[in-house]
Amino acid sequence: MKEAQRTIVVCVTGSIAAYKSAEIVRQLKKKGYVVTVVMTQEAEYFIGKTTLEALSGEKVWTAMFDKEAWQGALGHIELAKADLVLVAPATANVIGKIASGIADDLTTCLVMATKAPVVFAPAMNENMYNSPIVQENCQKLKKHGAYFVGPATGDLACGVHGTGHIAEIEEIVEAVEKFVP
Ligand SMILES: Cc1cc2nc3c(=O)[nH]c(=O)nc-3n(C[C@H](O)[C@H](O)[C@H](O)COP(=O)(O)O)c2cc1C
Question: Is the CB of 108 within 6 Å of ligand 1?
Fold first, then answer.
């Protein structure tokens, strides 16, 4: 266990690579981090809340308007107080929304509200990743201080070999440790 408890919010978005977030959460927990998971609504099509709740040991958050749960507090502001926000996997959609200042769900709101380092682990089809719009959005986020890990080159879910594969879990965990040792 680490001496002081460091808190990581893992935002899971609607990519086929969402199942990898389970192992990311498990590895981060093993390293002694307190891990809270936030899922986009689309992420729920790809991985079950129960799995991430069991692995993190914390409630998984999806809804922006969950007044009862936050007991009057603002959920996205509370979550934004984490030591680091990891968006893994990060879809083209969520990268684009954040790069454009759109904050229409819990994930995008808390990324906008945090002063902590934000690490993106993109995962998508190669053509999506290479599209000038996604590239521009990634550059914009980097310019504003975001850190990117991956994507890697490998066999993609769409059946082609290319760049867009989520980075190796070890690499993602290392990126977190670099910012929050
Ligand atoms: C089977 C399937 C797999 C998908 N995989 C990806 C992916 O790996 N990366 C991506 O950017 N979008 C992917 N999408 C599209 C996203 O799910 C879609 O853009 C969604 O609106 C993303 O929402 P979110 O960013 O709020 O989670 C996939 C869609 C389907 C149906």
Answer: no
Tell me how far apart the alpha carbons of residues 19 and 1 are, in angstroms, rounded to a whole number. Answer: 26
Does the beta carbon of 13 lie inside 6 Å of ligand 1? yes
Closest listed residue to residue 87, CA positions, set 131, 130, 138: 138
Q: What does each of the 181 residues of the chain score in pLDDT, given as a tens digit? A: 445 789 999 999 999 999 999 999 999 999 999 999 999 999 999 999 999 999 999 999 998 877 666 555 667 788 999 999 999 999 999 999 999 999 999 999 999 999 999 999 999 999 999 999 999 999 999 999 999 999 999 888 878 888 899 999 999 999 999 999 9
Q: What share of the chain is helix, strand, coil (3-state, %, to 5)?
A: 45, 20, 35
Please work out whether the CB of residue 137 comes within 6 Å of at least one atom of ligand 1: no
Domains of the chain: 7-179 (3.40.50.1950)
- Is residue 158 annotated as part of the catalytic site, yes or no? yes
DSSP state of 152: E
| Residue of 10, 12, 15 to mutate, ligand 1, most atoms within 8 A of C-beta | 15
